[in-house]
Write a structure and sequence with these properties.
Blueprint lengths: L3 H10 L5 H11 L2 H6 L2 H6 L5 H13 L2 H9 L4 E4 L7 H4 L7 E6 L7 E6 L5 H16 L3 E4 L5 H11 L4 E4 L13 H10 E5 L11 H11 L3 E5 L6 H11 L3 E5 L9 H8 L3 E2 L3 H12 L17 H9 L5 E2 H6 L5 H13 L3 E5 L2 E4 L2
Parallel strand pairs: 3-4, 3-7, 4-5, 5-6, 7-8, 8-9
Antiparallel strand pairs: 1-2, 2-6, 10-12, 11-12
Helix pairs in contact: 1-6, 8-9, 9-10, 11-12, 15-17
Length: 364
């Protein structure tokens, strides 16, 4: 078979060789075709395979129907990219333990101006709001939003980018054809339309726990900046942040309240020198200036109109953390029915949101 992509596909999906050893074999043999045609003596001489491993490798290679399997893959909606391809992201090429290749669904961006947004799966309404807003506004400015399509912060950052009609990329801890969590079926399709879903794992690979910390090195590597929104003391988000620091990336954190378990990891990163996002507008201006993107552009906060003095007073009593109507009643002389009318008006204008029965958070 003369198609060099077929040999790359064979080597990418081959499970006889570990991820790290694939890179070393490519460095030794130059390409996947040479590995496919190598004799047992050549494989052993490389110093990368013992005799028993080389025999197993050649046996499995001989029974693999390359032409049939490659044609079958080509009929699927999926694609792949390997380090033998000029399109292989340069940001990945420079990291330790770089993947030989990646399967993907959608259209790969150029990976310039990429920002990762990561955080807790079981996040607060405040965290969801910020993840969506940052994903949305950064995407509108031309940044590609990278995350892991997990529940919580990941999902809402993707949603923000999608609503902005910007680019977003999800790096999965499962095969590209395995949607996890399963309820993210719709957003999976939306990400494919607005960017790509990608994975180093074989098609059909289950989302096992050990895959997620490993995939985080790809999330951080493809990004210029990593934003952490709500992270516990021991979490995958902190693994991503640590990897990003090792890769020389900048970390920005949304600070949280002392004593809040969702804030422990973020506050620790701040104590170690991470940047603080204390205001979304200020952060956007800083990032745009760094990239030389519309340095003189002033980002204005959305001005709310048609809000009465009474509504302003009630709105000021709400917080970015859930607050009950009973608590609001204790802080004002307004009667309950009138309060419900004001709350309904504020909710309708998108200024507050009910996160669970009779408990609201501020959304402005």
């Amino acid at each position: 078979m003369s198609n060099e992509l077929a040999y790359q596909y064979w080597f990418l999906q081959n499970e006889d060789i570990s991820y790290g050893r694939k890179q070393k074999l490519i460095e030794y043999f130059y390409n996947s075709f040479n590995i496919y045609t190598a004799s047992i003596n050549e494989l052993i001489a490389s110093g990368l395979m013992m005799e028993t491993e080389a025999k197993k490798f050649i046996k499995n290679r001989s029974v693999f129907d390359l032409e049939k399997e490659y044609e079958k893959f080509c009929r699927s909606p999926f694609s792949f990219i390997t380090m033998e391809d000029l399109r292989y992201p340069e940001k990945l090429a420079n990291i330790y333990d770089k993947p030989y290749g990646l399967f993907y669904n959608g259209n790969l961006p150029d990976f310039n101006h990429c920002i990762a947004i990561v955080g807790a799966r079981r996040c607060s309404a405040y965290g969801k709001k910020l993840a969506f807003e940052l994903g949305n506004r950064l995407a509108k400015e031309g940044f590609t939003i990278i995350s892991g399509m997990a529940r919580g912060i990941d999902t809402h950052s993707h949603r923000g980018a999608i609503e902005a009609e910007g680019k977003t990329v999800a790096v999965l801890g499962s095969g590209c054809d395995v949607i996890y969590p399963p309820e993210n079926h719709l957003i999976y399709e939306e990400i494919v339309q607005n960017g790509a879903v990608m994975s180093e794992y074989q098609m059909g690979s289950a989302p096992i726990a050990q895959n997620f910390p490993r995939r985080n090195r790809i999330v951080s590597a493809l990004s210029d900046i990593v934003i952490v929104i709500e992270a516990r003391e021991k979490s995958g988000s902190l693994i991503t942040a640590d990897l990003a620091l090792d890769q020389g990336k900048d970390i920005y954190v949304v600070p949280g309240r002392i004593g809040d378990s969702l804030s422990e990891g973020c506050n620790r990163l701040i104590s170690q020198g991470a940047g603080i996002i204390y205001n979304v507008d200020a952060f956007l201006n800083e990032i745009l200036e760094r990239y030389g993107m519309d340095k003189n552009k002033k980002i204005l906060k959305n001005q709310r109109v048609n809000i009465s003095l009474e509504e302003k007073k009630i709105l000021s009593l709400f917080d970015y953390y859930p607050k009950s109507l009973a608590t609001i009643l204790e802080q004002t002389n307004i009667d309950y029915l009138n309060l419900l009318t004001v709350v309904y008006s504020l909710e309708k204008q998108g200024l507050i949101e009910e996160v669970f029965k009779n408990n609201y958070v501020k959304f402005c």
